[in-house]
Specification:
This protein is of the alpha/beta class. The protein has 19 helices and 14 strands. The radius of gyration is 28 Å and the shape is globular.
């Protein structure tokens, strides 16, 4: 509803109360309504699911339309990210937020810092989703408050043209609320547990849930060793649980991202159930590392498979885990991905050990031969040493092309002495274009960095501590933080305004009129940053 329509509707409602509501300002109500566009998390989930579906269709039409996100571990971090995006690019289109289970475990658990092994409280995930959207909605309220103040000033100055321009800006306001792709890990238990958590996450506002095919009780970070996968039917039950949760809550276009860790997972806890040769369970079991035996070779407690009339004994570790044959990871990733898409998934996630476009593309070519519109969400992970990886990729390409690489030591290419070399320059250019190139070649619809704000918080804090507690003293803060905020137009330099003090003043004036005791008067030190 347009700004003026809200005012008209409220004016008529107030007028109908025969004087009892004359102390209510219709325009004030209109402003508060526009500042609180989303009343519930479910409204957000439905709205943002629509955005993702539109973006996926746009990518299918042209891969230049890929999307991006950064992982955020606090509502304030997500808010500042979206404010920055609107400031620099004028629109939030194609920019999402990623909620990483790793960062929840490391930063948001009541147990304190934990590894990425699903040991944190699962309720902390929906709590963070709700927190992020609370901060994004507050960013809306703050920006609209600034527009309303400018509107009042234009009206007071009798500048009708500027007043109309500001009304148009209000009517065409773009919200900071964007899709969250939320990490549900391996589901935190059985399919019922997955369903219950999925509901909480959707009710908090998540339109996209990312779930992985590891076992819940042995879950590991995708870039650590010791990963254990589950048979497809076990995983698909959890995928269906997520879909049921979406449908129950009326988010019919909710997005499910299925992640396979099979590339780095050489173990399984279970042998899949198979009813006939070639079924899904049989395909899963076919990757097991087995030895053919005769009945006489069988030992007490052996688990034996019958395949084509042969007795096969899977290799079982002392941990009671079964081992896959070496070199089968890519084949298992392809089967996992096709199976997920055929059973209700919308997007894929293949966790790799390095950022190599052709490695990803090789698997996606095979997947797309079966499902042509298959798309990936890809982790541009801080667990990769991007500098070293891409310098080595350039080194290998040069070497294969017969170019002289004698001046470079392949294993030592991270050294700063190479930073200004032609090889390093080409590697940096490949990093710069990695997302666009991979979107075009490897079917990557969404590029995300899982843990960037974890690292930026550590880096900026280290730099401040080094200066402030050293010889620079207060100049270490003023020169490197506050002065930069002012020079770069960082809204947070006016931290009272960012925290909502001006919005509170607006409300005080609505509630008490001229009697309101407001914080934003002449003696507010934030006026130094006007």
């Amino acid at each position: 509803m347009a700004y003026q329509d809200h005012i008209i509707e409220m004016s008529q409602l107030i007028k109908g109360k025969t004087g009892a509501w004359d102390g209510i300002n219709a325009e004030g109500v209109a402003r508060m309504r526009l500042q609180n566009r989303f009343k519930t998390g479910l409204e957000i989930a439905k709205y943002t699911a629509g955005i993702m579906r539109e973006d996926m269709a746009a990518y299918d039409a042209d891969p230049v339309n890929y999307t991006q996100s950064l992982g955020c571990w606090h509502g304030f971090v997500a808010q500042q990210k979206m404010i920055s995006i609107k400031k620099h690019f004028g629109s939030t289109k194609g920019r999402y937020i990623y909620l990483s289970g790793w960062m929840v475990a490391a930063l948001r658990s009541d147990f304190g810092p934990l590894p990425d092994q699903s040991m944190h409280e699962k309720t902390s995930v929906p709590a963070l989703i709700e927190e992020i959207y609370t901060f994004l909605k507050q960013a809306d309220a703050r920006e609209l408050s600034l527009l309303f103040r400018d509107l009042d000033a234009a009206r007071a100055a009798g500048d009708a043209a500027k007043e109309q321009k500001l009304v148009d800006a209000v009517d065409n306001f773009e919200t900071h609320v964007v899709p969250i792709i939320a990490d549900i890990d391996a589901g935190f238990g059985n399919a019922e547990a997955t369903y219950l958590l999925a509901k909480k996450m959707i009710e908090a506002g998540a339109c996209a849930l990312q779930i992985e095919n590891q076992v819940s009780d042995e879950k590991q970070c995708g870039h650590q060793d010791g990963k254990v996968t589950v048979p497809h039917e076990d995983f698909l039950a959890k995928v269906r649980a997520c879909r049921y949760a979406f449908l129950e809550l009326g988010v019919d276009n909710g997005v499910i991202v299925t992640r396979t860790d099979s590339l780095g997972a050489g173990l399984t806890k279970q042998i899949a159930v198979s009813h006939q040769p070639g079924d899904l369970g049989d395909q899963y079991n076919a990757f097991l590392d087995c030895e053919e035996i005769s009945p006489a070779d069988m030992k007490n407690g052996d688990v034996v498979l019958n395949r084509g009339g042969k007795l096969l004994r899977p290799k079982r570790l002392p941990s009671n885990l079964f081992q896959f044959r070496a070199g089968t990871g890519e084949d298992r990733c392809v089967l996992d991905s096709i199976t997920s898409l055929q059973n209700g998934a919308d997007l894929l996630w293949i966790e790799t050990e390095k950022p190599h476009i052709e490695q990803i593309a090789g698997m996606m070519d095979r997947i797309r031969a079966v499902i042509p519109n298959a798309k990936l969400a890809y982790n541009n992970s801080p667990s990769f040493n991007w500098t070293l990886n891409f310098r080595q990729q350039v080194y290998d390409a040069w070497s294969e092309a017969g170019k002289d690489v004698a001046a470079y030591e392949r294993d030592g290419l991270m050294a700063a002495k190479y930073d200004a070399t032609a090889l390093a320059v080409e590697a940096d250019e490949r990093i710069r274009t990695f997302q666009a190139d991979a979107a075009k070649r490897a079917g990557i619809f969404h590029h995300l960095i899982t843990l960037p704000t974890y690292h930026t918080a550590a880096l900026s804090t280290d730099n401040l501590a080094k200066e402030y507690f050293g010889e620079q003293g207060m100049l270490g803060y003023v020169k490197n933080v506050q002065r930069q905020e002012i020079r770069q137009g960082i809204a947070c330099v006016k931290h009272q305004n960012m925290s909502g003090s001006d919005i509170g003043d607006d409300h005080k004036e609505y509630f008490a009129g001229e009697a309101a005791l407001k914080a934003g008067g002449a003696h507010n030190t934030m006026n130094q940053f006007a």
